[in-house]
Structure formats: structure tokens, C-alpha cells
Amino acid sequence: MESSLTEEFEDDKELTKYIETEDDWENVAEITPTFRESGEGTVNVVKLDASVSSPLTSLTEIYAYLNSGVLDSYIPEVAEPPQTSLDLLYNCICTLRPLPPHLVQTKQSILASALIPFLNEEKIHLGVLRTLYRQLTGSRINCPRYGHHWEDIGFQGNDPSTDLRGVGFLGIVQALYLVITPDTLPFVKDVYALSLKESQEFPLMVLSLNVTRIALHILRDGLLDKQCQKDNDPWVSVNSMYAAVMYHIYHIWKTQHKTLSSSGYVLKDAEEAARRNPGKMIEEFESFLNSNYTVSKKQAARDQIIKDSAS
Question: How far is 307 from 233, CA to CA, in rounded Å?
């Protein structure tokens, strides 16, 4: 089953102007969402070793890993995009002041993290994948590196790494943010449930990777600079932007009974809305979380994350 979700991961000429390594960016991954011919909407039964259970991977570990020097070879590949006079005028109007050096550095690190491919030799990469699977499906033990179980959370085929070209390691880091943050875990579980609904099913991780692309472009183009100054942390801003776009799509998909056939239009609408007013979209998502999930539900999520992070 083909979908226009994949069209958002095709070659992006604008992006190659910004990233100087054409080999990494000119062939941005084309993901074709498909579902198994039998057992649609169901979860694979994965035979696992019940004795194997590692702690969930945390965002603190991710940031420590990214600050350990792994980005050193990628940072030089990130360059400022060429700006027209209109771009400069927009920046003057929409940004109160230039980002201070420490925020610029963090912003560059985020952009560089999208260039890191999935590396089997890096234990933390597999840890992120396993955390995603466990938090979404409710499994309490580790799953194999390869297998059709990855399709259960919306990857394509038995190797998730093949879906990550274009947004790289950042693609699974942003999904990790949703499943490891107590305030957003109940929300992403609702998104996951909708993705399995027979009449509206969609590949969740394919959608997530497309949303990361949207958030990455918004950050790259300076449209999040004002939010970065407000948060004093571009990681907070770009993750909030990612989560807000996910909510925007979820709301439309659920309330307007969308299916894969209209996914391209939904993605385009979400991207345009986010670029017009990123701050407003983030505020709308925060309001949704506050009004739809009780303190006790968020506390239950926190308790589960703490428990499984110490396992």
C-alpha cells in the first residue's frame, strides 16, 4: 500500500543547500508505508528471552552521548543556509535578537545529530529502539534487533535503521522524547492506539520520522529562534515543536476520520500551520495535554518510567 507520507522523504533541494554533504542528504529516504496482508491492526507475538531486560534509555543519556564528541565529525557539515533579503527582513521582524552563542551551538548540534546514521556498534542506538518498542507495546523485556515485530510500531520491515535516512539518529531521539516524558507518554499511547485502528491505521514511526523532518526544517530556517530564546534550550524547543505537530496531525486524523490516502494533505497542512506560527501550535498542544490527561495519569506514567529505567 503506497502513501504520500513517503513523498515528504524524497530529495529536498533546499535541504542540500543547507547541508554541505550531498551524499548524506540528496537521497533522502523514501518510505513506502505498508501493512501485513494478514493480521492487520494486530501486534506480532515476539518470542523473547524473559531473563533479558535492560533499563529504558533516558534523554539524559542521549544528551551525554551527543556531547561526548560523536558530533565532532558532523558539525562541520552543517552550514548556515543562504538567505535572501526577504529572509533577513523576516528574521528582523520575528526574532527580537540573535541567538546567543550557546544556543547557536546547541542548535547546530541538533542539526548535526540528524546526520548520524544508525550504528549497530553503539549500544545506545539499540537502546533507543528497544525503549520505543517497550513503551508503545507494553513489553517489559528486550526485543531482537531484527524482526517483523518492528512493524508493530510502524517501521517498514525487519530493520528500523533503513527508515532513518534523512533524519538519522534524531528521528528516533524525538520519538524517544514522547515515550520517556511522563506528560506526553499518555498522549503517544493514544496515538499508537489510533495507528492500529483498522479503519484509520497508519505506520506510526513513518509518520514520526516525517514529523521530525518538519521540525528539523523549522529549526534550520530560524523559525524556532524566538521559542529557543524563550526556552533557553533548543532541544526543548525542537522537541516541543515535534510533539505539537504530532498532536496537530493526530487531532485531524482522529476527528476527520483520515486514512493513508489523504496523509500527504494532512502532512502538508501540518507543516504550513507549524511554519506560520510555531509558538501557537506548541501552546495548543500544551493546552491539550493539560485538559485531557489528569495529574494522576501523568504520575502513573512517571512511576512506570522511573521503575523501568531502574530495571
Answer: 27
Residue (of 96, 105, 113) closest to 229 by Cα position? 96
The 3-state DSSP class for residue 78 equals strand
- Which value, in Å, is the radius of gyration of the alpha carbons in the chain? 19
Q: In terms of residues, how long is the chain?
A: 311
Report CA-CA distances (Å) from 4 to 263, 287, 289: 6, 30, 29
Contact call for residues 287 and 248 (beta carbons, < 8 A)? no
User: What contacts 224, CB < 8 A, 6 or more positions away?
Assistant: 218, 234, 237, 238, 241, 278
Q: How far apart are CA 83 and CA 12, in angstroms?
A: 17
Euclidean distance between CA atoms 112 and 265, whole angstroms = 29
Please tell me the pTM assigned to this model.
0.83
Q: What is the pLDDT of residues 122-159, one digit of tens each?
A: 999 999 999 999 999 999 889 999 999 999 999 999 99
Q: What is the distance between the alpha carbons of residues 304 and 175, in angstroms, rounded to a whole number?
A: 18
